[in-house]
Amino acid sequence: MLKRSKIEDYLDEDGEPLPNVERSFVVLVVNDDPNSGELIARLVEASGWQAARAYDVSMAVSLVREQSLAGVIVDLTEGLSAAVDAVQAIRAAGDAGSRIPILVLTSTGGDESTAWRAGADGFLARPFHANDFLQQLDVIIGRSPEERDEHRQQMIGDSVG
User: What is the pLDDT of residue 21?
Assistant: First the structure.
């Protein structure tokens, strides 16, 4: 059974958004493999979030600029270096791109500190359990930009020392 997302913390008992809470419930899944991307998107949706889909980095950057998003999940078949490039492109996408929480998923080995340095707010290597993934997503979305920056700096420091 999947753990429910913290989205419920922002809804009243009728499932309506609480007043004065400006919050997007859409998570963008960036995945160049449609089958894998659909699996991740369905997992996001099963946890209570809405999922938008992008199949390449340019599409992702456009959606980041055009939509209000709760977060972005980057999961590319080309591995960690492609994910790092995607994170950098999203971060360069203006104000929205600089503020949005980004979770990097990867199945390839590599130095995860490159993802942190590029601006990732979370990092998860395959294989992972669905509940671990959803918990990581909730954590990064729940942090303030300052908390995400502080955590990123800590992770960069931990990977160096």
Answer: 42
Strands 71-74 and 50-54: unpaired
Cα separation, 83 vs 94, in Å, equals: 19
Which residues does residue 35 pair with via DSSP β-bridges, in sequence order? none
Q: How far apart (Å, rounded) are the C-alpha atoms in residues 36 and 76?
A: 9
Give the chain's domains with CATH numbers.
23-160 (3.40.50.2300)
- Note the pTM of the prediction, 2 decimals: 0.84
Q: Which residue has the tokens 């130095």?
A: 111
Interval 13-56: pLDDT, tens: 676 655 544 456 899 999 999 999 999 999 999 888 899 999 99
160's CB contacts (< 8 A; 6+ apart) are 113
Beta bridge partners, 103, equal 73, 122
| pLDDT-based confidence at residue 126 (cuts at 50, 70, 90) | confident
8 A C-beta contact, residue 50 and residue 27: yes
